[in-house]
Amino acid sequence: MDLNGISALVSGGASGLGEATAKELASAGATVVVADLNAERGEAVAKEIGGVFVSTDVSQEDQVKAAVQAAVDTGKPFRVAVSCAGIGWATRTVDRHGTPHDLDSYQKVIQINLIGTFNVLRLSAAEIAKTEPINEDGERGSVLNTASLAGIEGQVGQIAYSSSKGGVIGMTLPAARDLAAVGVTVNTIAPGILETPIYGDGPGSEEFKQKLASPVPFPKRLGTPEEFGKLARTLVEVSYVNGEVVRIDGGLRMPPK
Question: Which CATH number applies to 7-248?
Fold first, then answer.
């Protein structure tokens, strides 16, 4: 699929993996809607890439609908949606004092990471399905989700996060099968340890990142948001990749902790 002259939606597009993806899609000629809760950063990114910012909580149907409508309102065919919005959480199922995992925090992670991804998937696909096919295959567009290695090899304390990302992985193939009827591909990226602002700056953070990178076979470093963005672009451009969960992890297999 040629991205030049289309519109695209990237949730979580104000920073990290989402920002890198928004910039990569824009560099290919797409007009990108940056959907995020961080208005200051979101507006800055949108201005930089010639896109549109929409304040969006992905767990709220009406806000995702507004972001999708903004992509439609660009006047260019809406063909790509990428979900990068999400939160992390670390709590054991039962801690060493015998206290069970807090239910509210578990539900919040599921609401944002899993239900939020489903909201972007279903609402975007419904609009993409209204566009004219771009080729004789009947192709109309692509939806890309973001999971995590935690959804496959969850570590100690990742019960909520792993549940949410495992759910994203689990929806990939059935969504691809469902949306085949309207010419929309669905794939998911499962990142390993990627460089994000969460690790901070300075000597202490660099030492911590080196420790995180130590079990990675090669390259022995953290992945970059730019590498994620390039992979995201490839997966939406190459329509014969469909229903796949693609790891980007340097060969890492997560240890228990």
Answer: 3.40.50.720
